[in-house]
Design a protein that fits this description.
Layout lengths: L1 E12 L2 E12 L3 E5 L6 H9 L6 E6 L2 E2 L5 H7 L1 E4 L11 H9 L5 H14 L16 H13 L5 E5 L7 H16 L3 E5 L3 H7 L2 E6 L2 E7 H4 L3 H8 L11
Parallel strand pairs: 3-8, 3-9, 6-7, 7-8
Antiparallel strand pairs: 1-2, 1-4, 4-5, 9-10
Helix pairs in contact: 3-5, 5-6
């Protein structure tokens, strides 16, 4: 059984289609990629799952619970957390304040202190910088902070949007190692990534969007050798016929 199930999700921005009839699932402790070129609809899918945009049609379940009528903030408390593209940390707050702010509303003070200690053990790179303003961190350190902030809410599913964007190769590897480690503890990861090679390296399964529609899905090791993935990114020719997962 999947932790996260999306079925027939369709999102429009006024008369403009964002995505149509998207169906995907993420199992417990699984890392799943959502891939596609710029404008394919990847971020729209995450926003709809998070509750930041309202789908026109479709179903959404977390651990079998229907989330369609659940507001975005309540979805976080239920275990659905998004790390947005561009990190979106609070640069004028310290690293500690960024982390503590993420824990508000999810347990008592003692529980939040314990969660902060656990988070710092999991993300030791942040410990020397707790008193530093988050805006003074490097891009890679800010990305680690954004992921750590997401984990402060103890999510069942962590959705991460373009974590490698603008990072040096060494820091990209460190960030991806963190995501693998998060999944190993049982938290599911839904990864949006333009770097296909990177995504296939750490994911078990992948879904490929083209022009707002799901066109490919299956095990990452198989899709890595599928020429239709290249077509989806380059927009060469018509969208390929969907292949069953």
């Amino acid at each position: 059984m999947n932790v996260l199930d999306v079925s027939g999700m369709t999102v429009y921005y006024g008369p403009v289609r964002g995505v149509e009839d998207v169906t995907l699932g993420v199992g417990q402790g699984e890392v799943v990629a959502l891939l596609g070129a710029n404008g394919a609809g990847k971020s729209t899918v995450l926003k709809a799952i998070s509750g930041l945009v309202k789908p026109r049609a479709g179903q959404l379940e977390l651990d079998g619970r229907d989330l369609r009528a659940v507001k975005a903030a309540a979805r976080v408390r239920l275990g659905l957390v998004q790390v947005p593209e561009g990190r979106r940390i609070f640069p004028a707050l310290t690293v500690r304040e960024n982390l503590e702010l993420a824990g508000l509303g999810t347990g008592g003070r003692a529980q939040r202190r314990e969660r902060l200690a656990t988070t710092l053990d999991r993300f030791p790179l942040l410990r020397p910088h707790l008193a530093k303003l988050a805006g003074m961190l490097s891009g890679g350190e800010q990305q680690v902070l954004a992921i750590a902030r997401g984990m402060m809410a103890e999510p069942k599913v962590l959705m991460v949007d373009e974590p490698s964007l603008g990072l040096a190769p060494q820091m990209i590897e460190a960030v991806y190692d963190l995501l693998v480690g998060i999944a190993a503890t049982g938290t599911s990861v839904l990864l949006v990534e333009q770097n296909v090679t990177l995504a296939f390296e750490i994911t078990q399964r992948a879904y490929v969007l083209q022009q707002g529609r799901l066109v490919l899905s299956g095990p990452s090791r198989e899709l890595a050798d599928d020429p239709r993935v290249v077509d989806a990114y380059l927009g060469a020719g018509p969208a390929p016929a969907p292949r069953p997962s």
